[in-house]
């Protein structure tokens, strides 16, 4: 009887484990490569119209601080500096994009996508910033595709996001 009890307990534990399916392997995510792809998507062509609003000098200082921190690999500190800048200027699409990229470097895909979508909603519909926003979404959806049964959010597929990114390029008006 004393041997039977441990054997039964072991069998019960093995039976419980048999019903658990292992999680599917996650695609490998290289945050640095993703951010490099995003920044490359945001380079302006020579014949492209780019409009840049004037910025707050305090926000500019925080952006420079965040850039220096990112260069040192201190991504959490860079994100904190960008959060301070967003507290000053919460509706700056370029600043939202920089914070989305910081979120990617911290492997926070949900926050990166949310920030990029917010920047798009604010009104960045064309140009290099628009491409960066959509490329951020492409990078997130490439790693974490939308589930087929996810009807709560009408998120596009990575292919849809690529088409949106490509539609952001608008040529400058002809000059005479």
UniProtKB/TrEMBL annotation:
* Record bears the keyword Signal: yes
Keywords assigned: Signal
The signal sequence is 1-18
**Biased segments, Low complexity type:** 148-159
Q: Which InterPro entries match?
A: TPR-like_helical_dom_sf (IPR011990), TPR_rpt (IPR019734)
On the tree of life, the source organism's domain of life is Bacteria
Name of a matching Pfam family: TPR_19
Q: Which residues form a coiled coil?
A: none
Q: Where is this region: Disordered?
A: 148-176
Question: Nucleotide-binding: is it a keyword of this entry?
Answer: no
Protein's name according to its UniProt entry: Tetratricopeptide repeat protein
Species this protein is from: Novilysobacter erysipheiresistens
């Amino acid at each position: 009887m004393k041997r039977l009890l441990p054997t039964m307990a072991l069998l019960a534990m093995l039976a419980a484990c048999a019903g658990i399916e292992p999680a599917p392997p996650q695609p490998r995510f290289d945050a640095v490569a993703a951010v490099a792809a995003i920044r490359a998507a945001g380079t302006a062509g020579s014949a492209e119209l780019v409009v840049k609003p004037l910025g707050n000098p305090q926000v500019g200082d925080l952006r420079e601080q965040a850039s220096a921190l990112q260069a040192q690999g201190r991504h959490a500190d860079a994100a904190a500096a960008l959060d301070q800048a967003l507290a000053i200027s919460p509706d700056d699409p370029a600043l939202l994009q920089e914070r989305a990229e910081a979120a990617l470097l911290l492997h926070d895909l949900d926050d990166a996508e949310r920030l990029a979508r917010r920047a798009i909603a604010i009104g960045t519909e064309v140009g290099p910033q628009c491409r960066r926003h959509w490329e951020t979404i492409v990078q997130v959806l490439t790693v974490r595709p939308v589930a087929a049964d996810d009807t709560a959010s009408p998120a596009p597929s990575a292919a849809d996001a690529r088409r949106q990114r490509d539609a952001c390029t608008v040529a400058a008006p002809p000059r005479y």
